[in-house]
Each structure stands twice: as C-alpha cells, then as structure tokens.
Design goal:
The protein is α/β, with parallel strands linked by helices and 149 residues long. It has a single domain (18-147), classed as Collagenase (Catalytic Domain). It has helices at residues 2-14, 32-44, 81-88, 93-110, 135-147; strands at residues 26-27, 54-59, 66-71, 74-80. It has a 4-stranded mixed β-sheet with strand order 1-2-4-3. A hairpin with a 2-residue loop joins strand 3 and strand 4. The radius of gyration is 19 Å and the shape is globular. The structure holds zinc ion (ZN). Zinc ion binds at residues 103, 107, 114, 124.
Length: 149
C-alpha cells in the first residue's frame, strides 16, 4: 500500500506544472482543402507532422489577416473572416488563400519566422499570388517553406 501511494505521488510529480490538455483537430470547411494540401506537400517531402492538435478557424481578428497561437501543445490559427471574404472576390483567390494558410502553418507547424529578405512564403506582408499559373515557382516556394526550417 505504501509503495502504491509513492507511485501515485511520483506520477503526479512527474507531470510538473503541465495541465491536462484535451487536444483538438478542427479546421474551418472553407479552409480545409488548403490545410489538407499543406499536409500533402509535407508528406511529398518526407516530413511528417502531427495532425491531432490543430485548430484553424475563421473569425474576427483585430488588425491582422492571420494569427498563429500556441497554447501548450494546442496549435491555433485565426484567419480574419472579413479578409477571406475580400480575397475570395479577387483574381487567383485560391492561390492567395493557400499562400496565407501556408504562411500561418509555417509559423504554427514548422516554427518558421518571417523571412523578409528572401523570396519566401514566410516573408511578411509580401503577396506571392503570382505563382498562381506557374507551378515551377510554386514548387520552389513550397520547397523553401519546408526545407529552410
Ligand atoms: Zn507571419
């Protein structure tokens, strides 16, 4: 009995100050195909990523287009719903949305920072939608995203 008590205390002790976290995988339907594409691009390059702890949602996002947040093991991406509405009405909107989602997932899942001087999906405030009709450019950019971690 005494041994059991010690074991119980030890197992609590080993948790330290972490809280018991229920991880969630939930992606807004409007953004799902781009998030799935990100995982496909990772897999193509032999990179396996955790798929259990990601929430990507469309919501109000004050003064931002997208935001990447980490809470413990949970990864969250907020995408400004008004911006998505606006982008959807532009030319090459699907590429623009892919670009935005890949950028935020770069922060969230690849731990990438902004990469201003380079031609990169991780550059801040740079629109790269021009790769819409250029699959080679797209490959170069996505290679850079995954391989420059
Ligand atoms: Zn960013």
């Amino acid at each position: 009995m005494k041994k059991l008590m010690i074991l119980i205390i030890l197992s609590f002790g080993s948790m330290g100050c972490e809280f018991d976290q229920t991880l969630e995988y939930r992606i807004d339907v409007k953004l799902e195909k781009h998030v799935n594409q990100f995982f496909i691009e990772a897999e193509k390059r032999g990179i396996s990523l955790y798929k259990e702890n990601l929430i990507v949602s469309l919501q109000d996002c004050y003064d931002c287009v997208g935001q990447s947040i980490k809470i413990g093991e949970q990864r969250l991406i907020k995408i400004n719903k008004d911006d998505i509405c606006w982008i959807e009405n532009q030319n090459n909107s699907q590429t623009a949305i892919e670009n935005l989602i890949f950028h935020e997932l770069g922060h969230t899942l690849l731990n990438r920072q902004h990469n201003d001087p380079k031609y990169s999906i991780m550059a801040s405030g740079l629109s790269l939608y021009e790769y819409a009709n250029d699959s080679l450019k797209r490959t170069v950019l996505i290679d850079e995203l995954f391989y420059s971690r």
